[in-house]
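Task: complex structure prediction.
Instruction: return structure tokens for all chains below.
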Amino acid sequence: MSVAQVRLEKISKKYGDLWAVRDIDLRIEPGEFFTLLGPSGCGKTTLLRIIAGFVLPDEGTVFLDDKPVNLKPPWQREVGLVFQNYALWPHMSVFENVAFGLRERKVPRSEIAIRVPDALARVGLAGTEKRRPSQLSGGQQQRVALARTLVVQPKVLLLDEPLSNLDAKLRAEMRIELLKLQRDLGITTVYVTHDQEEALALSTRIAVMDAGQIVQEGSPRDIYEDPRSRFVAEFVGKSNLFSGRVIQAGDELAEIKTVEGLVIKAAMNACGFKTAAGREITVYIRPEAIVLARPGDNPTGTNRLNGKVAASAYQGSAVDYEVDIQGKSLRAHVINPKGKALFNRGDDVVVIFDPKDIGWVTGADRNTP
Amino acid sequence: MARSEPLQGLFVRTRVDWMQGALMAGLLALLFAFILYPIMRVLWVALVDESDQLTLIHFRNFFLRPLFREALWNTLLSGSLVVVFGSLIALPLAYIIARYEFRGKILLQTLATLPLVVPPFVGAVAFQQILGRSGTVNLLLLQWFDVAIPFMEGLNGIVLVQTLHFFPFIMLNTAVSLSNIDASLEEAAENMGCHGFRLFRRVTLPLMLPGFMAGSLLTFIRAIDDLGTPLMLNYKNLLAPQAYLRITTIGIDDVDGYVICVVLVFLSLASLLAARKYLSLAEYATVQAGRSVSQPIHGKKLGFVLFFSALALTIGLLPHIGIFLLSLSKVWSFSVLPTSFTAENYNEILFRVPHFIKNTLLYTGLAAGFDVLLGAAIAFLLLRSRLWGRNLLDALATLPLAIPGVVLAVGYIRVFHGWDFPGVGAPLTSTWFVLVIVYTVRRLPYTVRACYAALQQVHISLEESAQNLGANRLRTFLKVTTPLISGGLIAGGLIAFITSCVELSSTIMLVPRIELGPISYGIYVYMQSALGRGAGAALGVVAILLVAAGTYLTHRVFGGRTGSAFRV
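Output:
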């Protein structure tokens, strides 16, 4: 199976007065699992359909292996698209659905008779050839759709929110299977989703999209641990955001006074940031980086804020708290609560977090390493 | 307290079931008396000999007589030709409407359904004027080329008139099927390397076939049921006019008439069952209906589309023009266009003999009202109860689709003639109310369908949440269900109204006296004499206007989904 590189150059597409995607430049290397992540309406599906050839960009060029394919119709592109609703043909059996693309490619009957069951076995559906799509569960339909696309050995695999119609448990299962399948085949994959967990778990690289543009591109770790904007900080994972002004900037620490009047200390150079006193700034702390303690235990720590528990949600593996600090609401995610103290609504708590866990999104400069 | 609660629940449930049961029993009795029993009486007469023994001898006789064999063959032939020619017009139009976006598409959509507005027997008169032996076209042809084309001779005329009247059925059903095909189903095929005509053949065609077949079979049923067109064109060698002539000229005891009726029912029922089978297959296409494919077109393609549409519609709209001209003419014979114009025809039907219009409004208004009540009750029982007999109720309420008007009329005459109906003091068949009943029965399937569709949209949780918040069943029905299904009820009533306005097949047999006749009967009577044709045409224009107004209102209520009302 040959594997292709996908390159988008200055791709723009307008619907009416609205830019669906604007000035997109992307380069997806052979064998990568590349995810377009964003909220609905951000243009990620449009971009996928541009690659598949169903949408013609107003400007820009799509390259497959350095060959421009803008003028190629969908049926000549050799990119396999798995649709969100699976798009299985209801008038054909599972076998006929999977065999469809092979027949289009004039593959001999004898070879089809081998490759179709192979493809079905690969997705764990051996023996379902004679059934109709309507007789299969959602998860099985999903697998047939995948088999139907993979059996023709496309150069690129495009997946449009393939897991969104499955229930939570099945989604988790399919995620793992998809991951193994893609790594086994080594096929260049472009994956569209609004589910950040899925994106982080599956991808080798992620592009976060908002309002038709790519706002950040990088490995899952980059995206989660170093969000470069308020949007990414809030969309990928959860964040407690603070806006305020730098009142003092030393070598190690910066002291920030938030609009609520809280004072927070954040690590500077060590974490790759540089700022100066007087600058307007927005910082965040992830809920899982927060530790809660009882005021009576005299806890230590550079950042200690006193607050009151507004809500607590016990989840077994973790507890989610909402803590009210002088009118500012803070989320804390305490993992593995077994054996630890639980706080109830109305309890006084001390919120503690490490200056190194604070990240900047605006108002600071990045030290280039 | 805790112990009495289940008992109370049981009590409430039993009481409600009892009410539903009573409703079910009443409806079944009604449908049995006015649908099944008359048909069974017709069947009975055809199946027994003089000594009430079961026999097939009458059917043997039927097939032994060349006249009847020919009538059967002609019926099958003309019905099939109507479907074939109708499809030639309907399929391209359906594809254009479902798949292309262009200015004037709404106009095309509206114009393309207008042929349904002209009752076929009225259209027949108009076509005689325009395409008949001494009609406009042939007069011109004779003048210029000295040839004449027998458009309207014999079976030609029937096929022509019915094709141009019924093709919208095929078009609407096909277009619904086509636009229900989710775009991703075709895109998936393109993604697999399939495109163009191959894509159409392998994916699009199989998915639209159910709608097309259903529309075709429905057209076939309506075409063989049509009694007015052959009578107007004076072509008698088809099953429906043969049955009519047997019963009206030889008498209601003539067995051959009944045998013909049974053959007609057999043909319609077979077509209906086939259509339902196809539509049940069609359900799958709608399961994932999301985005549908509809693309803008320009240039040469647009030109071609507009040219074809204009051509099809010009021919389709000929009867409208013809009937309008005829209604304004003093005389129109052996001339290209009417030679002198007058408003006298309208004076005649609006002021001198206004009872045709009054009767139509009364009968069809009542029938539509009854249909809505019955339709809502039947839909309610089908969807919301778990009672025994729902399948039977559904089958009985659908049956009239497959019963030609002539057959139902013959059944009514057989059952209700000669004995005083309780509370009426005369045989039912000698009062105008028999017309209301026959209209109610014949259009019931449409209203049931409209109400069913409307009620189906109301998820049961909407009603349950009202009950959960303290509304009892009646309040729930009035405050939640009724507002939500009112659109469907009104649309169902309007469909019953517009289709009853132009009913002739059973009307013509059941009108007790001429002054009790509705518009369709009036047109038929007027058209019997050359002098009355103007007035008949004026009545035709009134019928067209009534149907057009009803169709417009239905469209307003139903939105763009008018087509679904005419589905099997």
